[in-house]
């Protein structure tokens, strides 16, 4: 594959969970994949797993002022950016009445402000190229009310809105913007949380028509669809990968 035709992707939070599964899919398909994360050890392990097409960058995305410099450096090194997957995010479980202003800001800063800032900077590169695909990662929290995650819910609902607004402005310039909304996916973190709360686990499975949790690869496949020419005429959409959870009763 010649250098020019080989795609270049950025996956934020690419060192673990859904981000790692997405990065794995990308490198398997021959895409140069830049994985951005805060934890150098996690990134190092991911690099070992993913191989030579993975390029780890340790960076804290809540440092908004440094994002333009980060993207400029990537553009200089790789020559282009074809795909951006905004996967990095944090969650916080707390009763609504106990969430402080600082708590709320912390989640919104990482999950909304940084997504906005990196998308803006990458879009500048993509506009120059005349093409690109941006994929947002939303959540079931944007589809219905989930208790004890007010900041996360606000953030992911903002992401769904941003997807539409960005798509309307950027699609005429050759950049597609879409969103994947994972349901309850089996990861080390989620299985631990659900096993510790059998009532919640039964509720999750009870309202999921397919009767099981998804796996990270399910989400990675959906992201890959939006990243490639298979979805050439698709923009501004949100795809639930949730076993029917969002329509389950």
From TrEMBL:
Keyword terms, alphabetized: Oxidoreductase
A Pfam family: adh_short
PANTHER family in the cross-refs: 3-OXOACYL-[ACYL-CARRIER-PROTEIN] REDUCTASE FABG, SHORT-CHAIN DEHYDROGENASES/REDUCTASES FAMILY MEMBER
Gene Ontology MF annotations: oxidoreductase activity
InterPro entries referenced in this protein's UniProt entry, alphabetically: NAD(P)-bd_dom_sf, Sc_DH/Rdtase_CS, SDR_fam
Known EC number: 1.1.1.-
Name of the protein described by the UniProt record: SDR family NAD(P)-dependent oxidoreductase
Top enzyme class: oxidoreductase
């Amino acid at each position: 594959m010649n250098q020019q035709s080989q795609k270049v992707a950025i996956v934020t939070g690419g060192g673990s969970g859904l981000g790692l599964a997405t990065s794995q899919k990308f490198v398997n398909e021959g895409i140069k994949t830049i994985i951005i994360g805060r934890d150098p050890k996690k990134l190092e392990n991911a690099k070992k797993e993913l191989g030579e097409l993975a390029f780890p960058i340790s960076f804290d995305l809540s440092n908004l002022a440094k994002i333009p410099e980060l993207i400029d450096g990537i553009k200089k090194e790789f020559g282009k950016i074809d795909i951006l997957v905004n996967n990095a995010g944090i969650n916080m479980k707390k009763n609504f009445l106990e969430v402080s202003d600082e708590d709320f800001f912390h989640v919104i800063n990482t999950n909304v402000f940084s997504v906005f800032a990196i998308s803006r900077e990458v879009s500048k590169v993509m506009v120059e190229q005349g093409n690109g695909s941006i994929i947002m990662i939303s959540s079931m929290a944007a589809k219905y009310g989930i208790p004890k995650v007010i900041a996360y819910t606000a953030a992911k609902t903002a992401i769904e809105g941003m997807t539409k607004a960005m798509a309307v402005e950027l699609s005429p310039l050759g950049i597609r913007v879409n969103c994947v909304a994972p349901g309850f996916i089996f990861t080390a973190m989620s299985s631990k949380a659900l096993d510790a709360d059998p009532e919640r686990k039964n509720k999750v499975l009870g309202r999921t028509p397919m009767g099981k949790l998804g796996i990270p690869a399910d989400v990675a496949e959906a992201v890959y669809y939006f990243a490639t020419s298979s979805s050439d005429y698709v923009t501004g959409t949100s795809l639930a990968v949730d076993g029917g959870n969002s329509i389950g009763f």
